[in-house]
């Protein structure tokens, strides 16, 4: 879960950064392009909604990383105790 969360965080961060860097010109209609390829033409509401979706994906990744880290902290090493009537007697 930890690796999946980190992957989600990195992917959404990289995609958001690339989209922002490649689309600094504005207007009523935005043509979204990544690596020189046009992905979509969006209006302001569509850009806002896609930002919300990316934020939710980012939060899901952050939640996965946090829960995996908390699970690692709670897990204690197991010790093997011999039973009183077991083979060691």
Give structural attributes.
single chain; 89 residues; alpha+beta; two-stranded antiparallel ribbon; 2 strands; 12% strand; rod-shaped
Mean pLDDT: 76
The gyration radius over C-alpha positions equals 23 Å
User: How helical, in percent, are the residues?
Assistant: 55-70%
Count helical runs.
2
Largest sheet: 2 strands, antiparallel
Give the termini distance in whole angstroms: 43 Å
Uncertain segments: none
Class based on secondary structure composition and strand pairing: alpha+beta
Shape: rod-shaped
Percent in strands: 5-15%
Concise synopsis of the structure shown:
This protein is an alpha+beta fold and 89 residues long.
Q: How are the elements arranged and paired?
A:
Blueprint: H1 2-22, E1 30-34, E2 37-42, H2 44-74
Antiparallel strand pairs: 1-2
Helix pairs in contact: 1-2
Describe the structure.
- This protein has helices at residues 2-22, 44-74, and strands spanning 30-34, 37-42.
- It contains two helices and two strands, in the order αββα.
- α1 (2-22) packs antiparallel against α2 (44-74).
- It is rod-shaped, with a radius of gyration of 23 Å.
- A hairpin with a 2-residue loop joins β1 (30-34) and β2.
- 58% of the residues lie in helices and 12% in strands.
- Strands 1-2 form a two-stranded antiparallel ribbon.
- With 89 residues, it is an alpha+beta fold.
């Amino acid at each position: 879960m930890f690796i999946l969360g980190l992957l989600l965080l990195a992917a959404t961060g990289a995609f958001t950064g690339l989209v922002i860097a490649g689309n600094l010109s504005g207007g009523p209609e935005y043509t979204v392009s990544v690596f020189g390829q046009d992905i979509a033409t969006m209006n302001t509401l569509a850009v806002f909604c896609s930002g919300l979706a990316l934020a939710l994906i980012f939060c899901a990744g952050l939640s996965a990383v946090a829960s995996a880290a908390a699970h690692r902290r709670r897990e204690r090493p197991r010790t093997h105790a011999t039973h009183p009537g077991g083979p060691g007697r």
